[in-house]
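Write out the bound-state structure for manganese (II) ion.
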Amino acid sequence: MTGNIQGSTNKGSLQGNKYRAIFISDVHLGTSACQAEYLIDFLTENTADKIYLVGDIVDFIAMRKRVYFSPQHEEVLALILKKARSGTQVIYIPGNHDAIMRRFCGQTISGVDIRFSAVHETMNGESFYVSHGDEFDGIMQCSAWLNWLGDVSHGFLLRLNTFVNLVRKSWKLPYWSLARAVKKRIGKAQDFINQFERISARDAYERNYDGYICGHIHHWQMTYHESSLYINDGDWVEHCTALVETMQGDLAIVHWADEKEVLVRRSELAKPEIEESEEWVSV
Ligand SMILES: [Mn+2]
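---
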């Protein structure tokens, strides 16, 4: 397989590849929302020296109410275990939805290293702190609705808005913007995402790491906060994204559904301007 991650970024142009490392999280196996088929394809087409499972892999919390565990869900687990048996180092960091697995942290089961957190060293010697991200929930507010509110599509809102206002007109009520009301909330959700990024990126910086790699908020991202690189590998419920480190040491977020593409490359990010912001030096 010769991947073209260093080549063009045309939609659908990304092919299977061998990577130094792959990071996936928020798979939510055991729920009908899980996009298992795309993940099976991703795990079949791509290989890596190390695979980090960054939490919420199996959704034990949702499974208390309803279990949806299809053969595809079993296949995802089988593929991961097969990779662990055939030389891939698999590091599993349980999240809040699979927190029940945290009791096994420190152990290696079926070739899978279960850990609270990990440190990933890139080819060029940088080190990234890796954890699911729910440890920051205590200092965040309203993170529960953040997950889905941030993903409400604008198009849907506008259509709903039109419908709501047709009804209001027939009731002789004045025009009222539903979209605006919701967008205000989404703006609030965006504030939470920014807050989460800043807090976690700073935490990694204070621990003397070059950046932070996580999941949890279902919002893929690769961005600098001051000199700390914040990376969120996204999810396999809606976005179908993974973080990869190429054999050349570049970091990239890839999207793997019907369209397969690179969403962002570290090598193409603008380097951070290191100036002491008030926020960063305070505390
Ligand atoms: Mn989570």
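---
The longest helix spans residues 178-206.
The domain at 18-135+210-281 is CATH 3.60.21.10 (Purple Acid Phosphatase; chain A, domain 2).
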